[in-house]
Write a structure and sequence with these properties.
Blueprint (H helix, E strand, L loop, with lengths): L1 H7 L1 H13 L8 H19 L7 E6 L25 H17 L5 E6 L4 H7 L2
Parallel strand pairs: 1-2
């Protein structure tokens, strides 16, 4: 998301670049920390310098059900033991939680649209 914001929101480019320079290991942190460091804090900085949060547009998340936990594979282990430490469902739930937290931030000026097949994890999340 931070990459897309840098590509499409010129005013965020410097704020996100500065955040990366201050915390170069942020991409190894969990999604909550990444969202706070690379998206929410820079947005807060830019929004407070502008006229207020106002809606900037929408963030569309397509095919969340296709998200796989590949990034969690232990690269030091091969064979049947090389399993992800986090399942696809856990990854998908973490993404939903991060997006929900962002949407509740008063400085987050986007609407979020999530398109996905109605898997049980999504139905439970949106209709507890």
């Amino acid at each position: 998301m931070a990459y897309q914001l840098v590509q499409h929101q010129e005013d965020l480019k410097n704020a996100i670049s500065t955040a990366m320079e201050k915390n170069p290991v942020v991409l190894k942190k969990n999604l909550h920390v990444q969202m706070e460091t690379l998206v929410l804090a820079p947005l807060q900085e830019v929004v407070h310098q502008s006229k207020g949060p106002g809606p900037w547009g929408a963030i569309i998340v397509n095919s969340l059900d296709e998200c796989e936990a590949e990034q969690y594979h232990n690269t030091k282990v091969t064979g049947p033991q090389a399993t992800p430490t986090q399942t696809d469902v856990q990854d998908q739930l973490e993404i939903l939680q991060v997006l929900q937290a962002a949407s509740l931030d008063p400085d987050f000026p986007f609407r979020i649209l999530i398109a996905s097949r109605p898997k049980p994890i999504f139905c439970e999340f949106f209709d507890p």
